[in-house]
Every structure is written in structure tokens, then in C-alpha cells.
Inverse folding.
């Protein structure tokens, strides 16, 4: 029944239920309200330095200074974004593997915006279509796709030990369950939430199956440079592109440029020829126009300014490597410190993992205990943001993990 006020007007909003908190961002809200002085947030995927802050890269600071000095307008960008940004993203992601006239690149509000634009394109232009996602995958993937009306399915990714990649299970699901024309979501590197990536040979087998099953790859490439290096992290993507004529790639500058709040991403569509690219590009632009009309300028301008300048590019690569190496050190320190708790806890399975995240193997009950008793916030799946760890707090973190494992 619809409620009415004393004045007789209808109050339809009184019946709207409260939405459940976001699986990841909702934890940050709880973390911010937590009074525990020793609290630790290992949930949201942001990089933090030794002081616990998300830094602004020096190359970004310099690029911004130049932009402020040279800026002459706040006018709208085109629907597809800043041309210089799009050109730099095309070069960074694809190199010279494909001719430019087969790739449509649109600047988007973050990698999430890219995924939503891609999902809308699949629904409006290629229906009926469904998308296959790894189990597990980033918690927001199914929500974004479902919001666009894109049906979702899952394929197996982890082995029964929940610590290793099960290629045979993945290929079995793709061969037995998918249909030609289906889309498949692949993580180019630094798989979120597990940190477990296929090897080069495994990528070849995946690419062969994707091609044989005539699946359309939708590749989420949010962490380029956070795994093994800029070129190394693109190797799986390039292997896929060597076997198919069509693909969609969603990229983000949030992590590798530290531009989280600027919301800088891109959706790139690879077509079989120039004519198909131009037609698809027109449909992508129509989707954007009906959604946010055109992207914000500043973040894209920063990325373009860095990548167009050889000195700033060199500085960026050094800073990116420093972040990547620090994450590796933290992962190693966590493994070694867990050993030193004296309880025989072996987390060495984390060592081959890449990127910001590691799948800890902790159960939802153990995760809740860490939050309630120790103020340590981890996603319910057991995913840990390694980049949120702190060298000085590592012992207390490991002591807490050891206690919940033994309780």
C-alpha cells in the first residue's frame, strides 16, 4: 500500500527498501566508523605507501603543474574523450600488434565505466548474448553486467585447494557449457580476487579454446604494470588477440597512475576490419551519449601528459616499478611472518600470486572474527589487499590471523 502524508500527497519513496551495503566499499564505511586505534583496512583495492596513505605519483604532480599552466578551456570533450589520451592508451595496451583502424578507443569514467559501456554494447548490439565469468571474479563484475541486462554464467577457475589455477576445469566448462557467440570475461593479469594468473603456455591453450568455441573476449585489464611489468602483463592479452578477430578490452589508470579519484579508464573495441570498427564505434558513442554524455578531462589529460613526455614516462615507469616491488616485499613479509608465529602456518602458496590481491583461504567466519575482534577488514571471500598492508603492523596482523585460524 502506498503511504500518504497528512497533506494527502502520495509518498511513494516510503516503500523503497534499504539496499545492502556494497561487498567491498561497504567495508570501508564500517572501517571509517570503527574506533579501534589498531584497525587495518585490507579490503578496498587501493595502493598505500609505508605511511598508510595513497600517494600522488611525482610524475602526476609534474604533469598537473604543466596542465594548470597551459590550460585554456574547461569546454566539453568529445563523446569518445581526449584524442591524445586515446592514442596513448592504444599504444600502451596494444603496442603495434594490430592496425589502428581496427581499434576504437573511448575514454571512460574509470575501468568500471568501461565495463558498463561494454556490457551495454553487448546487450544492445549482439543480443541474445551471455557472458561467462571466472568463479571467483571481482565482486562488482556481476552487478555491472546485471545492471546492463547482460545474462551471466560462471566457469571454474580455482582448483579444489582454492590456491591454484585449474586450467583443465576452466577449459572443460568452456568446451561443454558455452555456445558460439557467447562472451567470456578474462582478467589480463593480476586476477582479482585471487592474484593467480595463467602461465604463458596456459594462455595459449585458453586462446585456442576461445577461438575454437567462437567466444567474444571481454578482457578486464585494470592492473597493467602491477604484475611483472607493463609488457609482461600484456602478454596474455596479446596471445588472445593473436587468435581472434574481435575483442573488447577495458582498461584503468587508477592503479598504475594512482589516479583513483580522477576516474580514468577506456573501453577499446577490436573489430575485424575498419568498417566494422567504425560502425561499432558509433554505437559505443551512442551508449555514452545516453549515459554520461562525455568523460571528464583532467585525469585523461594527466595520463596523456605523462606518456607524451619521455622524461615523465621514464619517471612513471620507475615509480610504477617501486609500487610493484613493494607489493611483492609485503607479500613475502606476510608469508615469512606467518611462519614465525610458531604455529606452523604456511602461506607460501601466496608467493606465486601477482598484483595487489591475494586469496588468503580464510573463511567468511574467520574474516568476521578478524573484523569484530581485531579491527582487520578483509572482503568476505578472503581476498586480501596486499598493497594495504603495513611493514610496522605486519606482526600484529599475522598474530591476529594465526589466532582466528586456531580458534
Amino acid at each position: 500500500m502506498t503511504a500518504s502524508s497528512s497533506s494527502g500527497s502520495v509518498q511513494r519513496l516510503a516503500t523503497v527498501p534499504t539496499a545492502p551495503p556494497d561487498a567491498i566499499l561497504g567495508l570501508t564505511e564500517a572501517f571509517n566508523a570503527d574506533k579501534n586505534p589498531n584497525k587495518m583496512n585490507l579490503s578496498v583495492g587501493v595502493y598505500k605507501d609505508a605511511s598508510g596513505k595513497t600517494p600522488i605519483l611525482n610524475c602526476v604532480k609534474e604533469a598537473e603543474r604543466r596542465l594548470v599552466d597551459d590550460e585554456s578551456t574547461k569546454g566539453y570533450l568529445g563523446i569518445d574523450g581526449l584524442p591524445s589520451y586515446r592514442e596513448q592508451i592504444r599504444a600502451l595496451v596494444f603496442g603495434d600488434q594490430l592496425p589502428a583502424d581496427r581499434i576504437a578507443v573511448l575514454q571512460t569514467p574509470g575501468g568500471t565505466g568501461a565495463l558498463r559501456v561494454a556490457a551495454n554494447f553487448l546487450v544492445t548490439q549482439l543480443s541474445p548474448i551471455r557472458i561467462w565469468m571466472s568463479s571467483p571474479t571481482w565482486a562488482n563484475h556481476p552487478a555491472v553486467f546485471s545492471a546492463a541486462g547482460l545474462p551471466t554464467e560462471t566457469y571454474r577457475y580455482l582448483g579444489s585447494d582454492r590456491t591454484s589455477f585449474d586450467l583443465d576445469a576452466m577449459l572443460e566448462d568452456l568446451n561443454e557449457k558455452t555456445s558460439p557467440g557467447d562472451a567470456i570475461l578474462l582478467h589480463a593479469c593480476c586476477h582479482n580476487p585471487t592474484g593467480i594468473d595463467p602461465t604463458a603456455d596456459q594462455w595459449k591453450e585458453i586462446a585456442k579454446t576461445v577461438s575454437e568455441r567462437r567466444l567474444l573476449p571481454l578482457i578486464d585489464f585494470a592492473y597493467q604494470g602491477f604484475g611483472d611489468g607493463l609488457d609482461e602483463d600484456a602478454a596474455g592479452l596479446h596471445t588472445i588477440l593473436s587468435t581472434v578477430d574481435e575483442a573488447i578490452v577495458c582498461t584503468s589508470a587508477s592503479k598504475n597512475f594512482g589516479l583513483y579519484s580522477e576516474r580514468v579508464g577506456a573501453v577499446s573495441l577490436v573489430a575485424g576490419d575498419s568498417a566494422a570498427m567504425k560502425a561499432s564505434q558509433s554505437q559505443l558513442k551512442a551508449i555514452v551519449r545516453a549515459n554520461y554524455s562525455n568523460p571528464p578531462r583532467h585525469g585523461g589529460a594527466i595520463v596523456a601528459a605523462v606518456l607524451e613526455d619521455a622524461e615523465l614516462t621514464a619517471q612513471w615507469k620507475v615509480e610504477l616499478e617501486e609500487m610493484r616491488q613493494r607489493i611483492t616485499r609485503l607479500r613475502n613479509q606476510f608469508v615469512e611472518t606467518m611462519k614465525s608465529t610458531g604455529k606452523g602456518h604456511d602461506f607460501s602458496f601466496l608467493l606465486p600470486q601477482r598484483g595487489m590481491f591475494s586469496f588468503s583461504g580464510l573463511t567468511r567466519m574467520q574474516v568476521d572474527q578478524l573484523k569484530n575482534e581485531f579491527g582487520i577488514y578483509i572482503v568476505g571471500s578472503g581476498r586480501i589487499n596486499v598493497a594495504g598492508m603495513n611493514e610496522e603492523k605486519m606482526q600484529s596482523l599475522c598474530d591476529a590471523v594465526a589466532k582466528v585460524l586456531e580458534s
Q: What stands out?
A: The mean pLDDT is 93. Residues 221 and 251 are 5 Å apart (CA to CA). The longest helix spans residues 310-340. The domain at 76-308 is CATH 3.40.640.10 (Aspartate Aminotransferase; domain 2).
